[in-house]
Amino acid sequence: MLNKLAIMALTLLFAALPAWGEEVTGKIQKVDADDRNIVLEDGTQLWLGESVSADQLREGTTIKASYEEKDGKKIVTQIEVSQ
Questions:
Q1: Structural domains of the chain, count
Q2: pTM for the full predicted model
Q3: 12 lies in a domain?
Q4: Could you give the angle at the alpha carbon of 21 between the alpha carbons of 47 and 78, nearest 5°?
Q5: Which of left, alpha, beta for 36 (phi over 0: left; psi -120 to 50: alpha)?
Q6: Which of 15, 36, 62, 65 has the smallest count of CB within 10 Å of its CB?
């Protein structure tokens, strides 16, 4: 009985945790500020989440982005710019 309760508790705990995001690193090929979309040189398309600023994003800039897939789109949740 105790094992069943422990398994149920762990199942509920993991169900309540947010989904882990993915990460991608690359050089920006195209920036579409109106659509809040960037395309990396490898063809990866990313959409900027509402809390992510596009101010430093320029073509040729290398970035590292964390994202979550929502409705088939890669939505950036955090981004780091390196020159």
A1: 1
A2: 0.73
A3: no
A4: 50
A5: left
A6: 15
